Every structure is written in C-alpha cells, then in structure tokens.
Amino acid sequence: MIFTNIFQQLKNNDNSLYFRFWANCIFVKGHRKSIVYDLQRERIIYLSNLFFETYQRYKNIDIKSIYADSKNPNRIGFLKIANNLIDNDFGILVDNPKTLPPLITDYDSPLLITNAIIKTDSSNPELLYNSIKSLSNLRIQALRIDDHSKMNNDVLKKLDDLVRQSSCEQIYIRTNFSSYFDKMEYQLSFRFRQITYYNAPADIEYERKDNSDITIKYSSKSINYKDCGNVEKKYFTINLPFFTEAQHHNTCLNRKICIDANGEIKNCPAMTKSYGNIRDITLKEAINKPGFKDLWFICKDQIDVCKDCEFRYMCTDCRCFIKDPENIYSQPAKCTYNPYICLWEGQEGYVPVEECGTYSRKTGFVPDKKRINELNRKIWGEE
Ligand code: SF4
Ligand code: SF4
Q1: Would 232 be classed as within a structural domain?
Q2: What does pTM read for this prediction?
Q3: Upper half-sphere CA count for residue 166 (Cβ side, 13 Å)
C-alpha cells in the first residue's frame, strides 16, 4: 500500500509508517551540503547535512515516534522536508522499513573499451583507417575523431563505410573548417552524432535536415587539448551508469583509449605516456601492458578534496591536469568549486580550496576545520 502525506497519516493512520527514499534516489553527503541524486529521472535536490544526519538517525523509526521525539527540536522540520520529498517523488512512506532494499551499485561492462579517441591528420588517412579497423575488433561504443587537417567528403564516406561494419554506436568528429557545409550526396550512418568544424568564421549550430539527426557545429575556437578537463556544472552527468561507474572507476579514463596522430597508444589525448605504437602492437597488447589500466581504478572517493564534495559521483575526473603532478590522487587542477564553503569561483565570498587546509604529498589535503568554520560563519552566518 502507498501512503503519501506524512501529516495526514499522523492524523489518520494507526499503522507504523517509515519515510524512505526511492532506491534510485541516493543521498550523497558533502562537507557542508548534501545532494539526493535521482538516477532515474536524472535530477538532483540539495539538502542540508543536518537532514542527512537526522535521516540516518530516524531511518528505522516510524513517523509517529519521530513526531513524538520531543527531545529533538529539528523533528518537525525533518518531517516537513520529508513530506516535500514525497510530494516531489523522491521518497515514499512504507509500512515495512525493509520494503525498499538499497540499489546495487556494482558496475561491469562486457566491453573492454567503451570509448576511443583518434587524433589524426586526414590529409594522410591510412593510419586513421587502420586505427578504426583495430578498434572494430574491440567492439567499442563511442568514438571521437580529432582531425588536425580539413576532412573532405571522401574521407568521411570511407569512415562511414568502415564504421558500418563495427559495433560503434556514436561517432563524433572534430575537424577544421574549410567551407560551410552544403549537402552530402549520401546519407551518413545514424551512428554519426556530431561534426564540429573548428577555426570557423562564426559559432553556429544546427541539425542536419535529413533523417540522420547529426548536429553540425561551427566553432571559432581551435582544437586544444589544454582545454580538456574543465570542471563546470554543465558537464555533470546524473544517471545510473555514470553513478555506478563512479563508485569503482575513474569517470573519464575507465575503458578509454587514445591513438594519436603518430599511432602512439595512450590513455588520453593530453597525456604523453605511450604504451606502444599501433604499427607494432595490437590495441589489446597495449591495454594489457603494465600500467595502462591503473588509472581506470582511481575513483573520486580516493581523490583529495573531491572525496568531500557532494558532486563527486556526477563529476568527470581528470587525471591529466591535476594540482600536484607528483600525486596522482590530487584534485583536478581545473576545478573552481570549493566544497568546504559550497561556492564556485566568482561567487561572493569564494576562496580557493588551498585557503581551507594544507596539502602535503604525504598526507594529501587535510582540511583546517577551524578555518572552514570561520569562513562558513562569515559567508553563510553558520558553520
Ligand atoms: S584525463 Fe583529463 S585531459 Fe584526459 S581526456 Fe580526461 S578530462 Fe581530458
Ligand atoms: S571538488 Fe571539483 S572536481 Fe572534485 S568532485 Fe567536486 S566539483 Fe568535481
């Protein structure tokens, strides 16, 4: 049976009822703030850490007993928020606290590699074609091709032929602008999702007017790997596959492979370490070389500062641009969020994370609680 309004039930019902989050709504506690991730509807709601702590305390206590717990001045506030969460379909009242077992957060994939990046020069496309044939053997899901030349329609057509024989579901191409896209004589496969022309005279985006649904973008920027690894809210991903992967793996590098324009096989396009050349070894041999998979298993719970951040299971984790290149567990260098005071750079009162603690290679980042409390009192009027 489903019960909806807490205060109605307190008046009417003799049953013992318990507030529960739906199994797909997961509470993630940060240093100062918590978030409930709704992994099914791909949305979030911010809650205080006090609510999180009260929820933990009252988890197996029925709402009538909570209401009667006069020693706790926060109980009515807690019940009001819980009621609001039920109204917004984040939770429910159940008559048996064991009704909703926790979500299983195991992660696995039948694919050895899920996403690949090829850096190429399409004016000399043989290496590109060979790389795609090699990747086809790995049954990848998504492929990005970064072309530092100007990809012509013949190369595009040949790519289309090659990927039609592969398992790849999504292809993104970045190449240089030569002229505005007019029309192609043939229909590209549905696998092509986006073609971006860089160094274009203007920034324009449109959908192709045929059945392919390809997005064509013109960007006045250049392809620059130094731009990779930015941390912004618009890059956050809230869904079950990302969340479960983030529990066990690195959310950028897990099952990723890159082949650069010289055929060197790497973890990511911005990294320098090569595990061999595609002309000499197979991709499988490179992946199985010692060290290649190490970064796959570094997850947010191990990263300085990120482990205290409420966004940690929706944020992509860059391991290339990090605050201390000698410490692989240091925070992404391009993060401009401070989870100790819940502010982004540019917001009033923001100070960088470095002002909230001390960092040493031996201990990692150690937050200075006194300083953080002072800052939070100043910014928010509370600790
Ligand atoms: S590790 Fe960093 S630089 Fe490399 S692909 Fe990921 S976000 Fe980009
Ligand atoms: S601290 Fe920055 S990089 Fe780390 S999880 Fe939070 S937003 Fe992402």
Answers
A1: no
A2: 0.92
A3: 29
